[in-house]
Amino acid sequence: MRGSIQVQRYWRDSGKRETTTLPLEWRASSQRDLLNALHAINSGINTGLSLKDAARLAFDVSAGPVDSTKLNWGEVLRKFRDHKVGSGKVKDSTWRKEYEPRLRWLVDQLNGPTGPNNGTKALEAMRSGRNGQGDEPGSRGRKIRIQYAAQMLQFAVTRLGVDSRWSPPDSAGIEELIGTKESNAPIAANSGQALMLTDEEFLLLFDSIKNPSWKLAVGLIGVFGLRGVELKYCSATPDGLQVDYQKRTARGSTKTRLVPILDPQGRSGLGLQLLLTLQSEIVKLPPLGTSDSDVSSAISTFLRRNQVWLDLKRKKKQASGHRISVYSLRHGFAWRCALAQPPISPRVAAAAMGHTLQTHVQVYGKEVNWHIIQTTFAASSRQETLSTVKQ
Length: 391
Hints:
Blueprint: E1 4-11, E2 16-25, H1 31-46, H2 51-58, H3 73-86, H4 92-111, H5 119-125, H6 140-160, H7 171-178, H8 199-208, H9 212-224, E3 234-237, E4 240-243, E5 248-249, E6 252-253, E7 257-259, H10 270-280, H11 292-303, H12 307-320, H13 327-339, H14 346-353, H15 357-390
Antiparallel strand pairs: 1-2, 3-4, 4-7, 5-6
Helix pairs in contact: 1-2, 3-4, 4-6, 5-6, 6-7, 9-10, 9-13, 13-14, 13-15, 14-15
């Protein structure tokens, strides 16, 4: 076909034909590349791809004229994105911010002149980021790069018919590639779970804010345990704060929820005050950006200008080596639920916060349990002291 090779697939049971033209010249020397291409195309068709989609996978034409068969990793990436974003498992903003930069690096590695030739080697190459950055064993950067790369390779093999040698290693092999952080390794500024703010610390921050709009925003996050982005999706009701945001995860989307009032200790009535302020619209929420991904950045930028927040960050870092973030206000809500009298069960607290019980226990269990132990023992000591004084 105009000097190139045309391939036709005939489906006998339906009588239908599919036709596409391959980027191979019609000449005797193309025979080996043609056979390799037909093998790859057939594998793709057997996974449900059309003839044209399977052919696009079999050739990488981005580098110029094609004189041999080469797996089109750019097409694999495009289809993996369609799978993740199109199915609703990942938001487009999350793909662009988290997945795409890391997987572009994987594609660059695979297309390199000395690139890996199997799945395990591909993940080994992902232990370091661009320019050799983020290669510390057990680091979050290395872990996410390898996990995302493994997902794309598994998708390529099982859903696109790519040769099985590109399958990632099993979970034990992946954990070995990620590695374990050394016990004496320095803690990165943004690594690990952010510490929670106690009610006392939250109120100290809240009272320091003079801007009414930001006071409302920070108050709602801290009193009702919101994710920052949920400020754009909340409304006041007589029974509490209605949150209509639905977070997408690999397991599906979270449900909308109603969060009842649970005032911080020492500030009774604050929740109702915030609800009435929000409902009246006398004070409006501050500008939070045009997209969901802008919200956390807007809140962080505001807090970085607050001296009380900066003092809390410094004190927490000096005391434990760990950090606080916008999420620390949400974590404080989980702590408040655990210390309520009577305590709010983890299952109910998880529903109020808009995540699963498993997530609640994994993220908040250790920290909350330790504070419960401290508080319980402290209360017991006080009762014993009072009893002694009375005697």
